[in-house]
Amino acid sequence: MSVAVNVIGAGLAGCEAAWRIAQSGINVKLYEMKPEKYSPAHKYSGFAELVCSNSLKAARLESAAGLLKYEMELLGSLTVPCAKENSVEAGGALAVDREKFSDAVTEKIKLHPLIELIPGEVTSLPEGYTVIATGPLTSGAMADVIKELCGEGLSFYDAAAPIVTYESLDKEKVFYASRYGRGEADYVNCPMNKEEYLAFYEALIGAEKVQLKDFETHPFSVYEGCMPIEELARRGVDTMRFGPMKPVGIDDPRTGRRPYAVVQLRRENREGTLFNLVGFQTNLKFGEQKKVFSMIPGLENAEFMRFGVMHRNTFINSPELLNSDFSMRTRPEIFFAGQMTGVEGYMESAASGIVAGIGAVRRIKGLAPLVLPQDTMTGALSAYISDPFNSGKFQPMGANMGILPDIGVRIKDKKEKYGVYAERAVSSLKNELERIGYEDHC
C-alpha cells in the first residue's frame, strides 16, 4: 500500500510493530536514534537490545511467560523465533546470546523490502499513522512530545507495591473492612499484634536493597509520598504504625479490638483476583520481598504476581488514554507500544508492539479493531492497560496468571491449574484468529 506507518524506536516493541505492519503489505518508516545517540542504558548498536537480563523468562506453556510467547508466535512474532534461534542453556527459561539475538532481529528488519530505516533522534511527531515505541528512557525532546500528547498522564518513576493473588491469602487470618466503616468493606486487612509487628520491622530494616543504576535518581527524593516502606521504617520503630500500617479506625471482628498494626490490601483489578499491599512500594530485592512480606499474617503462602519496584520508568496513564489496540482515544491514528504503555517485561513490551502493529493495519484497511479474548495472556494485558477502572493509581503490569479470568474450578495443583489456563487461552486465541481470517487480513 502507498500509505506508510511511522514507527519510532527500534527496541523490542518497535521492531515487532514494524514487522507486523510490513508483513501485512504496508510500508513502514522505522526511526531509530542509535548509533547516532544512545540512552544511558543502551550500549549496542543493534536493534531489540536487551539492557538488563538476557532471560526472556519461562519457556513452558503452563507459565504466564511461556503462554505469552506462544501467543506471540500465533500472532506472527519476529522476536520469539529469533530468540529461539539464538538461545543459550538456561534450564526451563528461554535465554539468549544478547548480541546474536539483536543481530538476528536487526538483519530481519533491514532486509525487509517494506521497511525504510531512518536514523537519528526524533524531536517532533511525524504526520500520519504513528507507533510510538521509544521506551522507558525516552530522550528529552520526544518526552516533551509525549507529554504534550498525554498531558498529566505521564509518569517518570515506577513506584509500585507488591501484588498477590486473592486466592492465595489465608482467609482465616484476614478480614474485609474499611477504615471507620466508611463505604463498602473494600480492603482486605492483615492484623498484627505487637510481637508480629516488631519481628516484621526488624526483618524489613535488615533486608537487602536493589542497587540503582548510575542514571537513576532515587524516586523517594522526588516526592515524599513515594517513599519506600523500608526507608520509612528506618525513621523509627513506630513510623509505619502512623503511616500505611496504622490500625486507627479498624477493629478485628474476631477480637472486637483494634490490632497493634494492620497491612491493608486493595483490589488491583476489576475482577478482584489481584490485590496490592497499600503503601508498600519498595526497593528491596525480590527474594527479600518474598521472605519479609510473607511474615505478614495471612500472606504466609501468598502468591506474588508482581514484586514491588522503584526505578526510573517513563510510562503513560494508559487506562485513561489508550484503547485495547494501543491506539489513543483522542488521536486514533497514534499508537503507543512497549514498556511506556505500562506492560512490564521484555516479551510483554514486544507483545504490545504486535498488538499496536495489528491495530494500525486494521485501521488503515478499514477493519474493526481486533479485541483479543481476555482469557488469553495478550488479551488480558491489553485489557489491563486500557480498562478505565485502573486509571486512578495505574502501575505497570507484567504477564501473570492472576490477570486471567478465573476458570471457575478449584484446582489445588498449581501446574495443573495453569495448564488449564494455558489450554483455554490457546484455544480461545486460535478460534478468534480463525474467525476474523487473521492470516488474510491481519
Distance between the termini: 14 Å
The number of helical elements comes to: 13
Structurally, how many domains make up the residues?
2
Strand content: 15-25%
SS content category: alpha/beta
Level of helix content?
A: 25-40%
Q: By CATH's scheme, which homologous superfamily of the largest domain applies? A: FAD/NAD(P)-binding domain
CATH architect. name of the largest domain: 3-Layer(bba) Sandwich
Major sheet: arrangement of strands: 10-11-12-13-9-14
The overall strand count is: 16
The largest sheet, given as strand count, sense and whether it forms a barrel, is:
6 strands, antiparallel
What kind of assembly state do the chains in view correspond to? single chain
Outline of the structure:
With 442 residues, this protein is an alpha/beta fold. The chain has helices spanning 12-23, 64-74, 79-85, 98-111, 140-150, 194-205, 229-233, 286-293, 318-321, 346-364, 377-386, 414-436, 438-441; strands spanning 4-8, 27-32, 55-58, 87-88, 93-96, 115-119, 130-132, 154-160, 163-165, 175-177, 187-192, 261-267, 274-277, 304-306, 309-316, 334-336.
SSE arrangement:
Layout (H helix, E strand, L loop, with lengths): L3 E5 L3 H12 L3 E6 L22 E4 L5 H11 L4 H7 L1 E2 L4 E4 L1 H14 L3 E5 L10 E3 L7 H11 L3 E7 L2 E3 L9 E3 L9 E6 L1 H12 L23 H5 L27 E7 L6 E4 L8 H8 L10 E3 L2 E8 L1 H4 L12 E3 L9 H19 L12 H10 L27 H23 L1 H4 L1
Parallel strand pairs: 1-2, 1-7, 2-6, 7-16
Antiparallel strand pairs: 3-5, 4-5, 8-15, 9-13, 9-14, 10-11, 11-12, 12-13
Helix pairs in contact: 1-10, 2-10, 2-12
